[in-house]
Write a structure and sequence with these properties.
The chain is mostly helical. The protein starts with 18 loop residues before the first strand and ends in a 6-residue tail after the last helix.
């Protein structure tokens, strides 16, 4: 692909990142060039982000209803899974699942809450009350 043929179609990640592509310049040398994306990839990313937003909204609703602690909400919001949370906090996966229960979460020590807050990049008060997270 020639340098001037690299697609520049907008995508959902357009404001956040660019993709590095290899192309051939006027002299026939390989060079790197930034791309905003291309239509097919943008469509796929849009579908994926829609799915993530639905999962976040569902998790938030469950937290607000008192069905789960805020931890599942932040896991969805930060696009994580139990393995990632376990690796960063040092908690076993089964322990994290146990922390999903509001009654257990409400009894967590300040140190455990700080580990979660640091991972999710929020304050402890935001961790406890998702309505303060903006």
């Amino acid at each position: 692909m020639k340098k001037d043929e690299i697609p520049q179609d907008p995508s959902v990640l357009d404001k956040f990142t660019k993709e590095v592509c290899y192309a051939v310049d006027e002299s026939g040398n390989y060079v790197t060039q930034l791309s905003r994306g291309w239509e097919v990839k943008a469509a796929a990313l849009g579908i994926t982000w829609d799915d993530i937003e639905k999962k976040v909204a569902s998790a938030k609703e469950k937290v607000l209803k008192g069905e789960v602690s805020p931890i599942p909400y932040y896991i969805e919001l930060r696009v994580m899974d139990l393995s990632i949370v376990s690796a960063y906090t040092g908690f076993w996966k089964w322990t994290i699942k146990r922390h999903f229960k509001p009654a257990v979460f409400n009894k967590l020590s300040e140190n455990k809450l700080k580990k979660y807050a640091e991972l999710f990049e929020v304050s402890v008060s935001q961790l406890k009350d998702i309505t303060t997270h903006g």
